[in-house]
């Protein structure tokens, strides 16, 4: 159960020294400024806590006192010891007009709340804060002089100038706030029932659930994973979130930990419009970086051997960094020779938001070893030979698979992943992590993009052909077409009898002949690739006749390559009895695979072929 795993994740974070996570009297908020005040409640300094530079500065996450309710519409709801300038100073600077607008009712409500909480606490901060609110006009002028940005909409925390901790972090303040909460809610009659997460009976059930922030597509104020439809449940006597019976404690835990993960960068990634969070049962362990490496589409700096700067040796490897390097590059690892911790379980949660709700795209729970095995299987199925530049002069030949993020990018025009249909990531992710056939919808979209962009150099690229190869490999394997599966190889298969594959090879040679004949100024791929891969009978006789003209031209220019081209075409044609009128979907993929293989072989130097 997803919520149960999130609750367990909260407990792991709370018991770990690596994390600071809110308890049930606090929550996490993004804070922009820290204002220090003296004994008389007068502002002495304004500290900008935001990270970054210029317009890209972002607030920092801090643990602050629990807020009793959210703000909706024009409601006046102050927060304790953290708030914006409207509540702490009674004014706010308009970011457009730069006018200072006053909000006397807001600061009055804030002062009232602070005095109520600290009443009878005998804390020195009670008097300091009272003076702070009373001297707000003087403080506004000081803040205007020191940093007017603090008078905008960002959250502010307060600190006494002689303290190292903020006021809300002082133990006496925490105790006073906890006592106030206890008294305030002692007469609240919570509905009791069975918690669906823990299984405990007769426990207080959460009336509402805290919004989750940071999910792509949802509003800035957050959205709900557990929510309700009043009209749908009123006939059952269920209102608000009582239709999803979750205890107050577990509601706090799952929402707090999810907001915590989404606010950071270590265990979160955005992919094709989806927000993906991941963790392990050993939260914060280095093995979690494997998931990050698999989901992201970047590669580390690669050395001349394509090993990301690491001389990787499978014998006795116990450094997880080596595994991460290989996965980043789409390479398989030898699990039997790796010292992976078999007690580590991985959890991956894909989320997509709308204005008010958050939807689960996918959920994966498995051991670290099984996760690596499944990525191995994916990389092995999609493994394809490619030539890659490592600098301006040098090339390397490598055999690598393709990562999920690159697949999602390549099915959209111009590789813009934000245009990827959101549902496709779900089906693709499931196919990778279950070993079933890849989605035919993605396979068809890649064929479609290749034909539409045939005139571009990137039309038939490593990513697209790798997926085509992987799709066909799994499709034939899982449908028990063993002979067809064995014909699909990582690099050029000269022994293949597949007509579509061999016609793809011929098309690559015809393209090279024409380019050599015309000094690279024309290319038949743009004009004929689509029809040649779909209806070969209507195209290839004309292309072969045209090739004779180009071969003769090359021969006239004393280019010895014309004999080589003519010979190769003749050898391939021995495997083709006739040109089919139409190619099926999988035959079109074989055509593209043959074209890619032959093209890579043409541009592989003889020396490299002999070494391979």
Task: Tell how many strands the DSSP assignment holds.
Answer: 16
End-to-end C-alpha gap: 49 Å
Give the uncertain stretches in residue-range form. 299-318
Strand content: 5-15%
Structural class by sheet pairing and helices: alpha+beta
User: How many helices in DSSP terms?
Assistant: 22
Number of domains: 4
Summarize the structure in words.
- It is a single chain.
- The chain folds into four domains: 32-184, no CATH class; 189-263, no CATH class; 268-436, no CATH class; 499-611, no CATH class.
- The strands form six sheets. The protein has a four-stranded mixed sheet with strand order 3-2-8-5.
- Helix 1 crosses helix 8 (248-263), helix 17 runs parallel beside helix 19 and helix 17 runs antiparallel to helix 20 (561-573).
- The protein is elongated.
- The two termini are 49 Å apart.
- The chain contains 22 helices and 16 strands.
- The longest helix has 19 residues, at 499-517.
- It has 612 residues and is of the alpha+beta class.
């Amino acid at each position: 159960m997803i919520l149960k795993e999130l609750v367990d994740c909260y407990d792991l974070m709370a018991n770990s020294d690596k994390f600071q996570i809110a308890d049930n009297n606090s929550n996490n908020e993004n804070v922009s400024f820290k204002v220090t005040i003296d004994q008389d409640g007068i502002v002495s300094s304004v500290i900008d806590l935001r990270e970054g530079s210029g317009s890209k500065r972002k607030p920092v996450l801090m643990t602050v006192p629990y807020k009793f309710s959210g703000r909706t519409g024009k409601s006046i709801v102050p927060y304790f010891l953290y708030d914006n300038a409207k509540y702490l100073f009674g004014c706010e600077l308009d970011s457009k007009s730069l006018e200072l607008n006053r909000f006397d009712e807001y600061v009055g409500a804030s002062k009232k709340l602070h005095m109520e909480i600290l009443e009878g606490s005998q804390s020195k901060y009670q008097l300091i804060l009272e003076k702070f609110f009373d001297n707000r006009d003087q403080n506004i002028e000081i803040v205007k002089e020191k940093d007017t940005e603090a008078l905008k909409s960002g959250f502010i925390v307060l600190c006494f100038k002689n303290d190292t901790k903020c006021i809300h972090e002082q133990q006496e303040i925490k105790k006073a706030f906890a006592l106030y909460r206890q008294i305030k809610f002692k007469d609240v009659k919570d509905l009791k029932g069975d918690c669906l997460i823990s299984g405990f009976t007769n426990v207080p059930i959460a009336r509402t659930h805290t919004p989750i922030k940071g999910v792509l597509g949802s509003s800035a104020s957050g959205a709900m994973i557990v929510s309700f439809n009043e009209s749908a449940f009123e006939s059952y006597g269920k209102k608000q979130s009582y239709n999803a019976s979750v205890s107050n404690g577990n509601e706090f835990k799952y929402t707090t930990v999810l907001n915590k993960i989404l606010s950071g960068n270590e265990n979160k990634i955005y992919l094709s419009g989806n927000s993906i969070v991941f963790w392990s049962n050993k939260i914060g362990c280095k093995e979690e970086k494997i998931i990050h490496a698999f989901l992201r589409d970047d590669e580390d700096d690669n050395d001349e051997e394509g090993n990301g700067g690491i001389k990787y040796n499978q014998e006795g490897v116990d450094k997880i960094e080596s595994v991460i390097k290989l996965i980043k590059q789409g390479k398989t690892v030898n699990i039997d020779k790796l010292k992976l911790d078999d007690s580590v379980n991985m959890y991956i949660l894909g989320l997509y938001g709308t204005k008010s709700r958050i939807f689960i795209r996918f959920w994966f729970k498995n051991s670290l070893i099984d996760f690596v095995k499944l990525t191995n299987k994916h990389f092995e199925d999609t493994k394809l030979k490619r030539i890659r530049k490592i600098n301006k002069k040098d090339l390397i030949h490598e055999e690598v698979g393709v990562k999920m993020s690159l697949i999602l990018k390549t099915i959209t025009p111009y590789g813009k992943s934000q245009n990827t249909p959101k549902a496709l990531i779900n089906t693709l992710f499931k196919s990778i992590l279950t070993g079933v056939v890849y989605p035919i919808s993605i396979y068809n979209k890649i064929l479609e993009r290749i034909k539409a962009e045939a005139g571009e150099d990137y039309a038939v690229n490593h990513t697209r052909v790798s997926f085509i190869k992987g799709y066909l490999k799994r499709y034939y394997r899982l449908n028990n077409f063993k002979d067809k599966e064995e014909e699909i190889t990582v690099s050029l298969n000269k022994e293949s009898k597949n007509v579509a594959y061999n016609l793809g090879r011929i098309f690559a040679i015809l393209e090279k002949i024409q380019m050599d004949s015309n000094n690279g100024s024309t290319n038949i791929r743009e004009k004929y690739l689509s029809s040649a891969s779909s209806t070969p009978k209507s195209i290839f006789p004309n292309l072969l006749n045209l090739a004779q003209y180009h071969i003769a031209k090359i021969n006239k220019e004393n280019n010895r390559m014309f004999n080589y081209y003519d010979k190769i075409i003749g050898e391939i044609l021995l495997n083709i009895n006739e040109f089919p009128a139409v190619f099926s979907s999988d035959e079109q993929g074989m055509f593209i695979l043959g074209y890619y293989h032959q093209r890579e072989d043409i541009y592989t130097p003889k020396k490299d072929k002999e070494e391979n």
